[in-house]
User: Fold these one by one.
Assistant:
Number 1:
Amino acid sequence: MLNTGLDTVLAATTDPAASQVFMKQAKAFEADAKFFEALEAYKNAVKANRTATTLFNVARMQDHLGYDDDAMRSYEECTRMPNPPVNAFLNLSVLLEDAAQFTRASKLILKVLEANPNHPRAKLFIRDVQASKNMLYDEELARLKGREEAMFELPVAEFELSIRARNCLKKMNIRTLGDLLRIGEAELLSYKNFGETSLVEIKQMLTARGLRLGQQLDRGHYDKVRGEVLEKMKGTVADGVLGLTVGTLNLGIRSRKALQLLGIQTVGDLAARTEAELMGVKNFGATSLVEIHERLAEHGLALRTLE
């Protein structure tokens, strides 16, 4: 009884015959290159009978006219309806790729390939999406590396240091910020006339910039590990998450200071670190560790574990 009543209501809200008339009008407009008129006729066809076919044609025309957001919404609704055209998935994947939403685009194409593993257009598209995704990660890594390299080339003479500290660094042939990051506390203190006061002064200057003494000593190893971790995480988290700054995690003061000391700037940097590395920072305790675990989990990530 309930199903019969529902069928009656649906029948009262659809008019397949009228929809076909509008579809014919739209096709005629489209053939005459009257695309705006065609879009309106396709929309009328949808109003008369909302099906995967009518919605696909609205989306296709919106896509053609450059209404990308409208086209994506129409394609998405179309893909959720019974018997959607294959091109609804593929066309939507192209729009998503253009919007740098590579994970969503890949999922749509994979649905097509699951149904038809040899679909030529889908096979081509999945390669394009993966290539674009890899390019985005490569560009992000290059951008971060370029920013770091520029900072490391800054002369230490430009920073506000005491005459004693500046003279000691000059005699030790430490000219740039990068040079300072490649030396440890013990080596600095071993130099004649270089005392605790100068050490504290330099450490404070570095901390204010999210840096620490000696952090470049094992940089090559860390860069390799970071690259491997980012590679493993590709496709497992939402696009753009790894490049977010750690400031977006809204961490407490103690956690933020620890990340600054370790030179951690992005969410990807943080996920490449281990619990032991964080716990090795002074005043970083279990509460801060739990906080970081929770913030990373919100993005589907976790700290690196040693295998």
Note: The longest helix spans residues 120-152.
Number 2:
Amino acid sequence: MLILGFRRFSELVYSVVGKYTQQIDLSFHDLGASSKTDFDALIDRYHPDVIMSAGANAAYLADTLAVPVVSQPVRDADVIEACLKAKQVSSKVHLFTYAEPTGVQARLIAQLGDLLGITVIHKFYRTSDEASEVFYLSLAEKPEVVVGPSYTCHMAEKEGIPSILLYSRESAEDMIENAMAVAQRSLLQARHSYLRDHLFEQTEDLLFLLDPERNILELNPKAQQALGDARRLNSRLRQSWHLNDIQNVHTERWVALANERYLQIVDVLEHNDHLLGYLVRYRPVQAIAAVKAPSIKAANFVVSSPRMSKVASLAKTYAVAHGAVLIVGESGTGKEHIAREIHRHSRHANGPLVAVNCGSLPSELFESEMFGYEEGAFTNSRRGGHRGLLEQANKGVLFLDEVAEMPLAQQSKLLRILQDKVLRPVGSERSIQLDLKVVAATNRPLFQDVEEGRFREDLYYRLNTFALEIPPLRERKEDISAIAAYYLEVFAQQYGLSVSPDEIYVDLSAHFERYRWPGNVRELESFCERVVVALMVEPSGNVTEALLRASLPELFREGAGFTAPGALKQNELQAIESAMQMYDGDRQAVAEHLGISTTTLWRRLKTLEQGR
């Protein structure tokens, strides 16, 4: 478990944690993090099952992190006790609480003055920033004593104002016990999730689920058929099944059971460094012989069509050049795979590949995340500073995904760095010489954004030294079968399906080659996984129309197929004009309707304008 909070809160929890030391492993960390990246680093460092925090900080962490967050409760008795302590300092008490109180607590706070013979000036807030604003505005009222959460007490101490922590030892114990229950549920959910991921029910293997003491918790149907009631398994049978000598490491060994040879595979089940138990599989020798070695494809980059072969060849050529590469392609066409190919063949192949999603980087965090900062550069800056993404990518490749979504203000800052190749972190006097290759990607023609004033022309030419256009999957149908075969094989091996990928694709080919693939390769990958999983529970073991309708309903929706092949050839420009009217100028929708890329559509629209 991880405690994230300011000093007074951490000290309170530390004062009561002694009674729980045999039950939990607790770490404390001052709440100095300022971004999701910082919090993710803490998660990677501590691997907590649950985080404990308080007030606005707990609410923010719960919204930001995937790890469960338990908040310090505030009981009515805590409010009364804290105000009584404050009364010993002054009869005028400034009370700060997270969120506007409701119900009984609201009535209690309204009556506190009369109950305790004091003047209560109550302030509430919803975020940490609002807490700071509310507190500093209250200084005009010259508070003599402050009651509130640890952050408020922290600010009061800095102003030399006496402060009383709102939380009590009893409520801290309640929080710890609640966190222990949440952590236990998390461990159980992890065990169940692990079982689902390994398709406990859908395998020819005999499966034993053991707890950390190697007691049998569950058997799959195949093992039940062989053994009967697992809980009555006597010591002799346990020994013959080699369950007593299991070690805390992954092992594979041949064992003899009832005059047959099995491969015993032991997987150690762990979650955040906690031992959940063991999954023991017994695989018949016949099944081992039937499994083929997996195909090896570099970065899952499958190429079959002449157009994509040319793209792959150009990517390798541009990789060894010094200039930036701009990749243009619809969503799901594999722009990141191309970026990885460029990295793999570049002179920076031994350096890092740092990917930045420009569309999801908040404007207020752009400089600190991209350029980094020194310790003390701003309020709540991380101790020791922070290495920005540009510095992390030095001696490697910086991949700017969704670059068209970057606001103009951020574009100018990035352009200066790319031109000068010198980085100066925020608040730092030191300069860092950059040696990196830049690869950018966009899902629409970037020059169109330049013409419409949404993208800087100078940055466009800086990024567009070499251009790579990835055609959508519907324009390179030769790739569909090769990519589908690859993913069908990957998922068949992952889920233990013994049917040949080629046999599966025979029943899919007509549907796949007719479909227009709006989601491109990403959608094809998803379809392949769905089909394989559906086959795991299909009694006939065949790809039936009912199975396809249930697992891939997109194939049967109206308009799922390609537009008639002659539509564009017969009267291309009229077809474009008609489609533009039909979709109210939505170029992405028009391109999908006509079965062409957005880049091709842009060129054809230019032709239309010139012909008028």
Note: The domain at 474-556 is CATH 1.10.8 (Helicase, Ruva Protein; domain 3).
